Amino acid sequence: MTVSQILSKFKQPAGQAEHTENSSPSTPSGSASLKEKNGEQYDDSPVAYLTWRSFILGLIASMGGFIFGYSTGQISGFETMGDFKLRFAQYNEATHTYYFSNVRSGLIVGLLSIGTMIGALIAAPLADRFGRKLSITLWCIIHIVGIIVQISTDTKWYQVAVGRLVAGLGVGALSSVVPMFQSESAPRHVRGAMVSAFQLFVALGIFIAYCINYGTESMQSTASWRITMGIGFVWPLILGIGIMFLPESPRFAYRLGRIDEARRTMTKLYGVPENHRLVAEELEDMKKKLEEERAAGQAAWYEIFTGPRMFYRTVLGIVLQSLQQLTGANFIFYYGNTIFTSTGLDNSYVTQMILGGVNFGVTIIGLYIVEHYGRRKSLIAGALWMFVCFMIFATVGHYSLDRNDPPKTPKAGTTLIVFTCFFIVGFATTWGPIVWAIVGELYPARYRATCMGIATASNWTWNFLISFFTPFISSAIDFQYGYVFAACSFTAALVVYFFVCETQGRTLEEVDTMYVEHVKPWKSSTWVAPAHLRRSEEEAQEAAA
After folding, report:
1. The CATH classification of domain 45-246, taken from the options 1.20.1250.20, 3.40.50.280, 3.40.50.2300, 1.20.1260.10
2. pTM, to two decimals
3. What are the tens digits of pLDDT across the range 367-379?
4. Where are the chain's structural domains?
């Protein structure tokens, strides 16, 4: 059974035709599926839920998320490895032990995020100038340079930090350009799942890094951390080379006047003939939006705030990406070892692997949720779930756990681990993957690269602030830090309810129209695009005739 046949078993997105195992959209259908409109004949045969070309595109592009996750997951294990501490930590003469000060730990962990913030901002103009594909390959090369800087030092902790800064340039740029490439290329009915696959691969990267750290942490040499770093060369090579064999984003190609190329790419990704109705409709929508943009003249940078409903959307993208960090997920992933060592666990690497496995496993469920329960409902439910989990985490950690002698309170330690897993379930199925999908859909093509760069940079800004200041804050208020993330999660639910429109099953051009027309977010799921109304009227007239 093929990939498209397997996935056709899932519930079909709203507004899409039903599919069967015997459908073969890649071959021209018979005359029964042809319909005439404005003197032209269009194929109206069923569209497969997912073609193998779309699957391969999503798989290769999502390696950008794997690089993100692997870079994030490896560092928390390094800081508790004996050889890494011996070479890069500070020596305490009183206790005759090596330790990382809050500043040194914060810089080694956090400079990756500074690099990613810068990379996300400068990725936009390069993506618009050189295209999505070439930009992705360029940033893979830069990430490799960062790994070389890190792995080539023996004793200089600041070289590790600078190497993570350089590697972060690539990670940040990829976290902006890859979801953009996916959202512009994916068929509308799987766009949410395909862009959310970026987060699935983030989770997979974190999990694989945890597993490799577990396998090397007992080594009493540089191999304990250099093996994990060295394997990091593989992932950007896969993405940087693999992306060159994929087609350019059809929307980017169309904007450059390569209309035939855009049409061919869409027909391959949808698995339909070139004269298919769905392809014609989307190309027509692209044409109208492009004509509107050209009529408005050359876009200045400030139009991301002054363009049609752009201030609203630019700020919304920044807020959503910021709140994704402020849910506290990376607090768990960056400092997981430290957190669970404080609960009395002898080998916190095992717990990290469990958390990483839970994160990856339930993110797969998130790909189903994003296309079958909508963006809004999923995000609101996920935010409230995480609010409850962090309230319990903070309360138990502060009031029940004996932080001086954790083994005395085993039930409290177990509760912390359980509700950390529950939190990860909520994050990985909702806010982890779905925010990337929404931000990829939020902006018109004219401003998409710049706005996505700014939104992604805000994500990485908070990523850095959390990673750098967490040691200081945790030292001051211990597990009460969880109340901060609980409050942010509750705020996130309110933001989604009042400001985020439902975009499930809509084209990017329809999403733009929905925001421009000031559709109320809580009514957006029932909104019908003007183009659909016109087509329904035309079909009714044809039927009456």
Report:
1. 1.20.1250.20
2. 0.77
3. 888 778 888 999 9
4. 45-246, 301-500
